[in-house]
Amino acid sequence: MSFPGGDGEDAAVAGDPVVLEITDTSSSPRPPPVSVSDLSRLHPLPSPTVTVRADRRRLIESSSYFRALLGGSFSESGREHVQVGCNLEAAVQVLRYLFQPSESFTITHHNFLPLLEGALFLVVESLLVDCERWFRTMASQTCAALVPLDFIIEAWYFAQEHGVTFVQDICPEYLAQNFAHVISRRSFNKIPYDLLCSTVECPHLTVDSEKQLCEAILDWVSENMKPCEQPNPNSVDGHLFLLSKVKICLLPLEFATGTKRHWFDFGNNSVCTILNLLKDSFKTLMGAIADGNLEGYCIRITEYSKNIVLSGCPQITTAFLYISVLPTDLDVSLKRRIVSSYIQVDHRSFILYDELEKAAKTLSFRNVRMVDLSKCPNVHFGAATDWLKLAFPELRIFRALHCLAFCFDDLLYLLLRCPWIDEIDMTIDTSTIIPKQSIVSSSSEVLGKMKQNPRRYYTLCPPYDRQLNSVSSNISRLILEGRNDIDDVDLLRISVLKYSLCYINIRNCTLLTDNGISNLLLKCTKIHSMVVSYTSFGNQSIQTLCTTDLPNHNDGHAHVMAFNIQELHLGGCRGIDAAALSQLMSIINITKFLCLRETSLTDDGLCKFFGSRLEYLDVSETVVSMVSLAPVIRRNCNLNCLKTAGCHSLLFEHNEVEHISGNKYGDFLQEIGSTGFLEDVEMGWGFCPIQIENLISSFSKIRRMTVGLGTTLAENVLCALPMICPFLESLTLRFQVISDRVVRNLLESARNLQVLCLHYCLGNLTSFSFQEKAPALRILRLQWVTPWITNDDLTILTKSCNLVELSLSGCKLLDSNSQEIISSGWPNLALLHLEDCGQVTVEGVSSILNCKALEDILLRHTGRGIGRSIVDDAIRELPLLRRLALDLCDACEEGYDSPSNVMEGRMMRSLRMSRCKTMRGSCLELPREGSSKPVHRDTIVLEWNSTRLTTTIVKERV
């Protein structure tokens, strides 16, 4: 717009009205002018022109643009009608800002950019200040859910074009602070390269884990590397720059190995770095201190961090935890002393703790609510507890799953040092020995590696009980699943949590007795959720739950502990008789989660359950029928999980019932059709042939489905499952008739399918079945259904899906080359089970050991080529290995060597070695030449916990 010259005396007197004709282009005829107060009602704007009557004085006072135009020496300054050519919406927003009452005008992400553009063009200083204040306030709230990412991207582009420095400074900081939330947005991959670079370089970059950052960058790079007509000349260097910002030494091993699939160089470098750290992290850290590069080994923790997730990082030691919360200006010599102390924590006391506690006052991260150190076997948990106390005074959740080194004494110390924690999870793998198995012999020994423990809290012992009683603990959820190193005495110590404990999980804690569990319940009366499956929980504990604890109480069942039970898992608790179970069922009426699998539950017991809030019900492997189950389903309209597999009596007639009809008692589909919320279902015996039309309404929200022996789904039903269950994520079929058409349709159409398990299914499957791409599939189990699989089929399968678990049985055409196909095709496998798979191990297991993220291996009847040192080799080469199952038929020498030095820095939980009837002598010896076809005789099982190694011989294969 041009401003022709004019005489100063022609300027209008301030305060006169002036009519502004705001237009993007010349327009005629001119529209009639409106008042400023009417602008808010103009929606949409009458583009391309709006004529507004405004106060001349206010315009001149507020805008340098209008001051020059209306109060200067220009010819327009004296006119009553002035034309302004600019962005129409921007100008209208500015006029609203200037003339509307301040309380009725607010800046939002919807009008911010038009306001900013108008403020820049019309030079409204006060609006520029308000825009900057609003943008900074918005960014400081660190609540990504309130601000669309598209708005941030648009603001960045605008700021670059117009040189708005405060926006350019704030956008990367805002994204960095909210990065963990931003990466889940659909428009994340639209973030421009320079903005993403500024974000990942920002010191406030906040992620839950290094994996989260790396995954986001790889996704962005993959999306933005797609071919285009004008390739970005800096794209290659740019992508390498982004990836260089990832601290690969802090990546989980499984994730690092998985990146080799599409980013081989980056993934291979990451895996090598992690493995080198495992060999000698002390030397690496000391070298980093000397070079001044310690930042590359520090966990990302900022003032905005809420979660710290290090799960699956075996390379992490206690030293990594401490260097991550030290002040950056800390003396180099002190850093060396700290690393030296905590890298060798098992060999010296923590002489630096008091010094650190005084020097590290600034290293308190009050926003952190959850820390996850699961699968970190090299962390010393006594020292880690002191770290938690130093750095995270508001911590609520601590997880240390699959960490044998996190023992009961560590738990007690954690309760003493960090009483503000609300939830602790120290789950380990459950024992492979179950009560119904026939045990030939069993022995145990204290682990040789148990040294004099240098932890500071050992100087405080005894008296645990007196100290714990003096602490006001907040623990409400305690998960001890699989801990067969915890006994009744330990459980009694836990009862110090009587004022806070509401949820306890002691599943598969095999040393606990019914009396011990009962005593805990007597003391911790606030417990309303229990997972006690496969324990000795029995009649005594039920009597404790059902007994009046306040004599002379007249408020019905309100004083009975069982009346408040919200979650109860009793699966496999065979110490409960039918009468006691019936008594319990008559009281637990507000329960939402109920598991009675493999119990003595009968129709009589289930009929006494009158609750109507169930969301989860598991009655698998019981003798209940639809006589009792149908009313339960009808009453519980919010039921989303129903498991009835193995209920042989589901539709049987009973003596007291003359006839069971669909109209009177209902059938399975008829009843669940009334709920409409089922997401998880297990079906077994007692179901009639199922029609597609009966499934559509009942199963439309199903995510997980298991169909077992006793139910047969027709081919047309199986083919229609992706349509019937559009959200299907997991499908397990046992003893079903399947075909190429069924499997291909599942892989092609069930786009959310992550788990596919086919067990003992019949049909004419061919290699054509698995040629369909299934990018979401992560777990594949094919047991005795695909004997035709060859190496070529395996190669095709590796290109079709990215698996983390693979289980194959009866694939006799596989050979030693199969190992390389598996390890190179799925480098991030966590589970590999091969049984009766030809000659896969006839030349050893070297390629299998290249899958560095393996946690669970089963090799049985896969070729006589496994060397004596397999156990030690596997433990040494696979840092995350927890379970190993072998068959002595596959040994190429005279059996296998016993494992040595397993526990130190390792995760090994169980070793199983099966042997056959034709074998003679030691359980670790091979059969002689000419022996008959092997038939499994027994299994030797070695199990480790935090204190002991138990050796058991079981009279069957396990």
Automatic annotation (TrEMBL):
Gene3D superfamilies: 1.25.40.420, Potassium Channel Kv1.1, Chain A, Ribonuclease Inhibitor. SUPFAM superfamilies: POZ domain, RNI-like. It comes from the Eukaryota. Residues 11-28 have a biased composition (Low complexity). Residues 152-261 form the BACK domain. Pfam families: BACK (PF07707). Residues 1-40 are annotated as: Disordered. SMART domains: BACK (SM00875), LRR_CC (SM00367). Pathway: Protein modification; protein ubiquitination. Coiled coil: none annotated. May act as a substrate-specific adapter of an E3 ubiquitin-protein ligase complex (CUL3-RBX1-BTB) which mediates the ubiquitination and subsequent proteasomal degradation of target proteins. PANTHER family: PARTNER OF PAIRED, ISOFORM B-RELATED. This is BACK domain-containing protein. The lineage of its organism: Eukaryota, Viridiplantae, Streptophyta, Embryophyta, Tracheophyta.
